[in-house]
Each structure stands twice: as C-alpha cells, then as structure tokens.
Amino acid sequence: MALSFTLNIVEHELAPFGRIERACADNPAFEDVRLFIGGKACAPDVLYVCTTAENVRAVHESGCRAVFVGTDAVSSAELTVASAAEPLVVFDALLDLARRYADWQRAMDRIAYNGGTLQDLIDASESFLRNNVVVLDPALKLLGYTKNVPCDDPITLELIEHGYHTEDNIRKFKLNQRFKPWSEEDGFVINDTYQICKYITVVKSFKSRSAFSLISVMMCNVANPEPHLLDNYQMFTDHVGVFAKRDYPDDKPSGSAVDMFLKDLIRGEIAEEDVADRCAFTGIPYDGRFCLFYMKADKDSVPVSRLLADVSLSVAPAKTILVDDAVVVLCFNCKNSFCAQHCMVGACPNKKRTVSKRLNEMLKRYDLTCGRSSKFAPLSQAPVAFNQAQEAYAISRRPPRNRERVGEMRIWERIYSFDAYALDSLVRCLSDKEIDMIRLTYASSILAEMARQDIASKTNNYEFLYTYIMHERRITAVAEQLHMHRNNVSYRINRIEEQYDIDTNEPQLRIDLMLAYCIREAGIVQDAQ
C-alpha cells in the first residue's frame, strides 16, 4: 500500500503553530514533504512547503500542492500557516509527521502481508487511532482490541471479558437496527445516538458475497471522530481489509457467522458455557441429535473446492464447512430418537434419501471415504465428535482388513462410523505389551484357535459364531443371514460349543467373545501397518 498522510492530518498537526487557513475543498494524500526553494516541483505525491507567494505559484504551475508558512496570508496555497515560528521549524515538524506515518504504514504492511495478526495491527496503530478499537469476526467473536487505552464502556468491557458479544448485547443491536446499516453501507457508519454505547462509534464492515466477513468498531472514548482521525482510521481499516479478503474470499463459501462459529467450536476455541449463546445468534440448536462427518479430497480425483460444493449440495440442510484442507459436515436433521448410529429411512427430513445415503453415493463417485462421529448432544460436545470423525477417517485410509473379518459393523460402505471402530482407535494407542495382554484373554484364545482350525479344515466356525452372537442367538435371523436351514444353525452351534467347551447361554461369555472379536480385528489392522 502507498505510504500516505492526508491534508486533513497535516492541518491537524500544524494547528499548534498558529492560525490555519485552508483553500482546498478536497483531501489529497501525500507520501513525503519537501521544502521548495525554487525551480520546478516534479512530484505530485509530495507536499511542498513554501515561504513566498511566488514559490506557491510555481508549485501549482507544476501541478503539485503547497503549504505556505509565514505571517502573510497566501490564499492560493492549500494550507496557509500564519505563524511566528521559523519556517524551518514548521518544516521539521512536517518531516517528523511524514516519518511517523511512513513507519506506521510500513509496519501495517508487514503485518498484513507477512503473517501478522489483527491484534498486531491494532497494537501498531494505538497511538494513531487514540480510541478503543475492536475487530470482530462474522459471529461477533473478538479477534483483537486496543489494550493500552482505558475503557469504561459496559458493552466493550463485556466483549473483552467474554471474547464475543453476549446474546443480550446482540439483542440490543437488533432492537436498535444496528446490523442493517452495517450490511448496506460500504463506508463508515457513525452512530452518535448513545443508545447502546456511551460514546460515538465508527463502524467499518467488510462483506463476502453480501455476508459479513470482518467488522471493525472504533469507540470514540478519547478523541472525537474529526476528519484527521477518520483518515487515520481509514488507513487502519484499509489494512484490515487485507485480512478480510485473505480469510473470507468470495470464491469460498466461508465468512458467514455459522461457518466461523462451527470452526471455532470444533477447534475447542469456545468455552462450553458459552456455546448456547453462540447457538442462539447463529440459529443452530444447542440440544438436538447431532453427528459430524469428516473427509478430504484426493488430489488425483477431485479439487477440494469441487468436493466442498458437491458435499454442500448433497447434504443440505446440514451445515458444511472447510476446516484446513478437510470438508466437515454437521448434521442435525435426525428426528428419530432410536437412531443410535446410522441414518435410518424415514428419520430424515429428506425422506428416504438420508444424509448418509446421499453422502455415500457422492463419495462413491469420487472413490473417497469419510469418517463419522458418534451421535452426540448437546452441541458443546462437537470438539470430541470432530476428533472421533477425524480418527474414523484415518482408520478408513488404513490397509484392508484381514480375510478373517467377519462382516462389516457399518451400513454405508464409504462412511466409517467411529462407533464401529472405537476399539481400533484404542488398540492403536496401546504398546505391543499391552496388546499382547488383551489378546491373551480366555475368549481371545478360543477365537484364535477357532480361526487356526478354520484355515486348516477349511471351515467357517469363526464367522458362524460371530453371526450367531451378533444376531442375539436368534436362530431364524442367523439362518437368513447365512442362508442355512434353521435346524442346521442349531446343529452347528451345538457342535461348536462341544468342540471348544463353551456355553453361549452365559451372558458374560458372549460379551467377552464379542469384545475379543473386536479387539482381534483391530489388532489385525495394527499388525498390517
């Protein structure tokens, strides 16, 4: 950005030297100051200091701007300083002004373009803005604020304390129709009604596809919004605009209050006791039947922007956001209290085409997988659900399971539910010694021997026992699943119990066996890695 200060700023800075007369209706900006001693002015972005009427005319003839310093009024100069001070003293003050503003502009440029933060930008601008300034995201979360200027405004103090505007304050904004001018006007919105804040406020809002991206508010608790101060604030907000364009580009469906709220939520950046307030502002229920999906684009199959657009279309009205390089879906469509793990037909507002069904079809087209969290409530549990979905996705990327796998514990072939793979996650965290311990339980030793003998004898007792326990020993259900006669099911289970000296009538043994199946399969994947 150009290094600049304005004529308004120059007029304010020169006021202590004497009476100022201004003959310029506009407000030009400059990059430097020079003392004109004759010849020809050649830099239109330089403000020339003149001591004679002839020099002023020469500057103007060159198409440049002039400040006249002396006891006689020169009406043609943009500014005339009627001062008893030596011209070189005034010139020296203007040189200092140009240096300070050049340093400030360079500092803001470095912050905006070299990885700085909005808080860094505010810190670098405190002496120029003088007042309290806050910058907020679309969900009215505080991103930065003036730290070294005393503040006694209740609204601002609450904002700094909570890190976001409370629901009570948002209600006040709505009642006083503050959001309407913020969303409609491109320039500064100056409010001097004192209805909410005890001071005049100057607001600059940034938009992405007609939605808020960033909001900058200057509370004039120290200095009134005079022209020179508004010019300083304009320079500051010009650099805030760099963050707005960078973090909320028009070609991404981000920048909305919902997106920012969900991103902060799943990253654990919102305190649990504050989630309900933020839900009320964004229109997302706090209590409901939630689940969260996590997936990534394959660079060889689909760009992430295309995946994001397709997922958003497929799962609506569920919410879709981009978190780093992953697409995340928060679904709260389910209306069935018995839907413990998977989308059930008739339980979704979209009738038979549930979110899981639509998402599974789309993932199949791109040959991708996704992870899914457990069902959860309330929404404050979203950070844990995000980790679950991320872990389930990581499991989906591992080598295929061993052929001993006895039927999938998930319904959708492209969606890996954390409920089905929680033990995989647990086993992955264990040491070899700990894995050996849980593999050598009584139930695990039975299954190991059964699997060994199946391979040697070309039988399938391992799979049969799993199906028998999974279907709660219901003979008809097992027969249908394995395409067997009911009598054969009874015969097979009796033979297995006799051969391995077990009694499946014992509830604890059935639990131990099912747990052993899960741990065994998780261990197989761990070994494959």
Sheet with the most strands, sense and barrel status: 5 strands, mixed
Radius of gyration: 35 Å
Shape: elongated
Detail the poorly predicted runs: 251-255, 401-409
Total individual domains: 4
SS field, number of helical segments: 20
What fraction of the residues are assigned to beta strands by DSSP? 5-15%
Using DSSP, what is the number of strands? 17
Strands of the largest sheet, in order across it?
2-7-6-5-4
Percent helix, as a range, is: 40-55%
Structural class: alpha+beta
Mean pLDDT: 84
End-to-end gap: 52 Å
Structure notes:
It is a single chain. This protein has 20 helices and 17 strands. Helix 2 links the parallel strand 5 and strand 6. By secondary structure, the protein is an alpha+beta fold. About 3% of the residues have low confidence. The protein folds into 4 domains: 94 residues, 3-Layer(aba) Sandwich (Udp-n-acetylmuramoylalanyl-d-glutamate--2,6- Diaminopimelate Ligase, Chain: A, domain 1); 133 residues, Beta-Lactamase; 142 residues; 99 residues, no CATH class. The protein is elongated and about 120 Å long. Strands 2-7-6-5-4 form a 5-stranded mixed β-sheet, with helices on both faces. It has a 5-stranded antiparallel β-sheet with strand order 9-8-12-11-10, with helices on both faces.
